[in-house]
Design goal:
Blueprint: H1 2-13, H2 16-19, E1 37-39, H3 41-49, H4 53-67, E2 73-79, E3 83-88, H5 90-105, E4 119-123, H6 135-153, E5 157-164, H7 169-180, H8 185-190, H9 193-213, H10 215-230, H11 234-257, E6 264-267, H12 268-284, E7 289-291, E8 294-297, E9 307-310, H13 318-332, E10 337-343, H14 347-360, E11 368-373, E12 376-378, E13 381-382, H15 393-410, H16 416-436, E14 444-446, H17 459-478, H18 502-524, H19 528-547, H20 556-580
Parallel strand pairs: 4-5, 4-10, 5-6, 10-11, 12-14
Antiparallel strand pairs: 1-3, 2-3, 7-8, 8-9, 12-13
Helix pairs in contact: 1-4, 3-4, 5-18, 5-20, 6-16, 6-18, 7-9, 7-10, 9-10, 9-11, 12-13, 13-14, 15-16, 17-19, 17-20, 18-19, 18-20, 19-20
This protein binds one RNA strand of 75 nucleotides through helix 3, helix 7, strand 8, strand 9 and helix 13.
RNA sequence: GCCCUCGUAGUUCAAUGGAUAGAACUGGCCCGUCCUAAGGGCAAAAUGGGAGUUCGAUUCUUCCCGAGGGCACCA
């Protein structure tokens, strides 16, 4: 429908719009009084053409109606101060539905080809061994996984990557903390996985505190950092191996639970060499320089600031390692684009890094995009793993599940055995949706009671809408009322003519928006637009469900048509949810 | 001090420079012989302040106020 109108507008405007550099755009107004589609082209073109916006809008409206195939529009109207609003005829909407249903059967409705044939790396989550997997990582995971799926939906092959700091100062701090209680270690190693993790979390908190408070401890930790880096001490090596292993085992378990499949998990320890080599090259090329015993990049002439790449002890910092990672990625994958997702506190740092990459590795220039997410903030104050007041991803999910449990058991649609699984999926969906519905890059103020709602614009609402649609389908199948063509049986010709109520037509118009919504979210690398779309689709589906009898309708053809609409809606909703990383549940 | 984000109903979030700023939660009022009420409907409620650009500004520029982040050996 949208493409039809744009084509008509291009026909009317000829090359005037193109010459003026003004794109012909069509939007879907929130306000029903402004039509199904609306364009502002008359206002934008009035000045170059030397006419009033309203006069142009009137001309365009009249001409559009004149040029359109018979029966496409219900009406086309100019509106002050110069909009042109379009209302599709029911028949045009019905035909759109027939097309969507056909595409949907082919399981390709909504897919785009903006990234067809491209290989895109997406690095996200990035938990660090020796530290906890906290809700910040959960946030990165939710956004990154959704971005990955959106890009795949546009035809690209996506390689999911994670990168973790298994060497560096934070490790030295944790190791220092652990060495303070080395006598406990044999006992702890006999205990549960979670006790071992708790030991390391506490060790890190201790080590961090001592690093800040005690100059002598600080010196020891810096030395320890070098020792770890050099693999110089067997006892340290053994302790390190244990800590690293405990962390990584946990991460693997969580990745599985979060349904994210990384093809490669990079560790800082393995990119050190490439990083140092790149730094050498940078020095040779005069991009990096020695300063006060360290190797730095002076970013001031680029409007950036100076950053240290190798510290005065000869240990590469995050900068050099990230440089090594970039080189490494290029060696491991032939990629067209690489996306790195981090917290927004790294924005300035990444500008420096990407500038160095541009200067040092010209063939990678511009291929890497840094995307940042905001921080999780609490009414109660800031979370800091250094201070030990972090909320782990597991703790959050456990708490959300706990709140859901009562709600799930009140409802009888599920067998007891399935309730735990549903609770898990709803909890994950609720958390994911609350993260994804917001613009990425913004901080999220997190409040257990308030921000994680299970009603209204929230994950469970979408899952519920889906489950209800599926329930109707099941009942229809049980009753033998019409073959819902899940198995691929084509609907009888002309069925779409029975889609006629306002709620039905509005729902079809929503369905038609799906490809645009997915494409736009992928282009902007922002799942929030798709989350908003899924919500609006669910609203339209619920309205249809509430207002329109389906199984109870006496007319067999109409019943079949409505079942078909339900089937397609459920499938599109499921596709949308999948792109958000939220499981569509058959029953709730 | 310099740089980057961000200030929208009581709260949490929307709004490719467009129309009457859109939702949800909370509080108020309706809908139960009906396909899952985690639902549907009604009413109420907001752009931090000032100047500017524009036919049109939540959006762009600038100043002020406020919050967060970054600014050399952490990541």
């Amino acid at each position: 429908m949208k493409d039809d109108i744009i084509a008509i507008l291009h026909g009317i405007l000829g090359k005037e719009a193109a010459d003026a550099g003004i794109p012909v755009e069509l939007s879907v107004p929130d306000e029903p009084a402004f039509g199904h589609f609306s364009t502002n082209i008359a206002m934008r073109l009035a000045k170059p053409k030397g006419v009033t916006p309203m006069a142009l809008a009137e001309d365009i409206a009249r001409e559009a109606l004149h040029r359109a195939p018979e029966g496409l529009f219900e009406k086309v109207e100019p509106a002050t101060p110069g909009f042109v609003n379009f209302w599709m005829s029911p028949r045009a909407i019905q035909q759109a539905f027939a097309r969507i249903a056909k595409d949907d059967l082919g399981k390709r409705f909504g897919r785009g080809n903006a990234r067809a044939g491209a290989t895109v790396l997406v690095e996200f989550t990035d938990p660090n061994p020796f530290k906890e997997f906290h809700i910040g990582h959960l946030m990165s995971n939710a956004i990154g996984e959704s971005m990955a799926r959106l890009i795949e939906f546009q035809g690209a092959e996506v390689k999911r990557l994670s990168y973790g700091g298994d060497v560096g100062l934070h490790v030295a701090k944790a190791m220092f903390g652990a060495l303070q209680r080395r006598n406990d270690i044999p006992a702890v190693r006999e205990e549960s996985e979670s006790a071992q993790l708790a030991f390391w979390a506490a060790a890190y908190v201790d080590g961090s505190a001592r690093y800040e408070e005690d100059p002598r401890a600080r010196e020891e930790i810096d030395v320890l950092n070098r020792t770890i880096f050099d693999h110089a001490d067997p006892e340290i090596e053994a302790l390190y191996a244990w800590g690293r292993e405990v962390s990584i085992a946990k991460f693997k378990e969580l990745f599985l639970r979060l349904d994210t499949d990384f093809v490669r998990n990079y560790w800082e320890s393995e990119v050190v060499e490439d990083g140092l080599k790149a730094v050498e090259e940078g020095i040779a090329k005069g991009i990096l320089e020695h300063s006060e015993g360290a190797v730095v990049f002076k970013g001031e002439s680029y409007g950036l600031h100076t950053r240290v790449f190798v510290n005065s002890r000869g240990v590469p910092t995050y900068e050099a390692k990230e440089l090594g990672l970039t080189v490494r990625k290029r060696r491991d994958f032939a990629f067209d684009a690489s996306i790195v997702l981090t917290g927004n506190e790294q924005n300035d740092y990444f500008k420096v890094l990407l500038k160095v990459v541009d200067l040092l590795i010209p063939d990678l220039a511009g291929k890497t995009t840094h995307v940042s997410h905001g921080m999780l903030r609490f009414a109660s104050g800031k979370m800091s793993s250094r201070k030990g007041n972090v909320i782990t991803a597991e703790a959050l999910l456990a708490q959300v599940s706990e709140r859901l449990r009562g709600k799930v058991s009140e409802r009888s649609m599920l067998a007891d055995a399935d309730r735990d699984e549903a609770t898990e999926a709803i909890a994950l969906g609720a958390v994911r949706y609350s993260i994804l519905k917001q613009n990425p890059g913004q901080d999220i103020v997190f409040d257990f009671e308030k921000s994680l709602s299970f009603d209204g614009d929230a994950g469970p609402y979408l899952q519920y809408a889906y489950a209800r649609l599926q329930s109707v389908r099941r009942k229809a199948e049980e009753a033998g009322a019409g073959k819902v063509s899940a198995t691929g049986g084509a609907a009888p010709e002309g069925l779409q003519a029975f889609i006629a109520t306002d709620a039905e037509l509005a729902l079809v118009r929503r369905l038609a928006e799906f490809p645009d919504a997915a494409a736009r979210a992928a282009e902007r690398l922002a799942p929030s637009g798709l989350a908003a779309y899924c919500y609006r689709l669910a609203v339209a589906a619920n309205k249809f469900y509430e207002t329109t009898p389906i199984l109870k309708d006496e007319d067999a053809m109409r019943r079949e048509a409505r079942l078909r609409l339900i089937e397609v809606t459920a499938h599109v909703l499921a596709s949308g949810l999948r792109l958000l990383g939220i499981r569509a549940l058959e029953r709730i």
